[in-house]
Each structure stands twice: as C-alpha cells, then as structure tokens.
Amino acid sequence: MCYGAHNYNMLGVILKGGILNRKKYNYISAFKFLIFIFTHHGMIMSIILKPQQNHLLAALAEDIQKSLFPHLKLVSLSLGEVLYESGDVMQNVYFPTDSIVSLLYVMEDGASAEISVVGNEGMIGIALLMGGESTSSRAIVQSAGYAYQMKRKQIKEEFNRHGQLMSLMLRYTQSLITQMAQTAVCNRHHSIDKQLCRWLLLSLDRLTTNQLCMTQELIANMLGVRREGVTEAAGKLQRLGVIEYSRGHITIIDRPRLEALCCECYAVVKKETDRLLNWDPSKIKQPTIHRSCAATEKCPVK
To answer: Taking the complete model, does pTM exceed 0.70, yes or no?
Structure first.
C-alpha cells in the first residue's frame, strides 16, 4: 500500500475524471485502461516525472541539461532496496525525484545509524565525483518512488566538462557534510523526541505529501536507538495532535508545532542547504579597491 501510493492516487483521479466519469460506466474499457497503465507504467512515469523534479538537475543551465539528460534513465526504487553497500564500487549515481534514500553507517555487530538523508534536493553517489569509488556507508531506500540513474563514466565526464555542474556538486557536498555533522551532534546531545522531530521534518521536506510510510522499527534503525524509544516518542507526538500513526503510515497534521518541538539541528541543516543550493555569485559583496591603492593592491579603507 505504501509503495507508489501517490502514483495510484493519481491513477484514481484519472479514472474518476475520465473513463469512469460517464453516464454509462464502461467497465471493460476501464479494465483495458488499467492493463495499459500497469504494462506501460515505466513509460507513463517517465512522462509524469521529469528530471527537473530533482533540484540539482533543475538548477543546471539549459545547455548542460541538454548534454546530461540523454544519459539519464528513470528507475523505480522500492522501500528497503539497497543501492550500494559499504565498500562497494559504485556503478551509478541517482537523482531522486520523489523517493528518499538514507545513508547509514553499519557497525560490525549489525547495529546501524543514519548519517544523512537524500531526496529530490540531491544525489546518491557523490563519492564518485570526489575521487573515491566507494564509501563506508550503505545507501538504502527510506521512501519508495523514482530516481534518475546515470552511469559512473558518464557522470564523471559531464562533471569534468561543465564548470557549473562541478561548482553545484561541490556546494551540494558541503551541504551534505553539514547534515552529517549536525546529525552526529543531534544524536549525541538531543533526546529521541527531538531526533524524531528532526528526522520527520527532513523527510517531509523531500516529499510532495504530508505522509510517510515507515515502521517504528525502521525509524529506530535509522536513528540508531531502541524501538521502544521511538514508540514512546511517536506516542507523545500523536497525543499532542502533531502526527497520526497507524500500521507504518505516518501523517503530519501540525507541521508548525512539529518545528516548534524540534531542536535547532533541523533549522541549521535546512538554512545551510538552502544557502548553498540557491547560491548566486552575483550577490556576494566584493571588496572595494580604490584607484589610489590599485597599484599596490593594498587599501587602508575597509
């Protein structure tokens, strides 16, 4: 029920507004239409989900998009799917459109903790562009949906060819480092209640709805805490009327209250991500060099 729920809601709208919204219901035509939908699902989703739904791809200049987009392939990501394991040589990068992927660090005893979350604002596989071929983390799908996949050779070629793409990816890497550092601080100094609020808000920012499909056990694995702690924290939020939780379905009812209950970590990550990914070099104030000082490049006037 969770997987692709938004897509099936969209299908319901199509049926209600189209085939089934007639004076005479033609159920045979409706059935044929459903068969077409499911057999051509990938083609239909490639029309609905454009690369520009990923913020990094949308931020590229048109000429760079024309160079890069032909190499993209729309792929379906299912809940719990592992995109790469710790130490694996990465073969692809992924630009999520409506899915969310968690980067986890897994200990020798099997315990794990989330170090960052990536959705439509970013890319999975940034290590390929930093000179490494693998990382010590695991990438696992936290919320099912779609992403645009690109082969390692092609993304490296495009990265080295286009200065704007390189600059954008470096800024994104900085935002990712900020999120990882803030997550470490939050996990060390803040309560499970605060951590859960931060996690919910970061996930919500990367979805088009106010609903998440996630069991308490999976959330506990992400946060690196006991399931009982998540159960208690979620129960508090539900009693306060902030969320509704039932059988793995979480609905955010009162986002302003959720933000008020959260620690400062969410705001720090969001502010820095917005600053870096909406960066405009023309807005940076350049130092003033007076004519009389131009020759020596030293100016006493600040």
So the answer is: yes
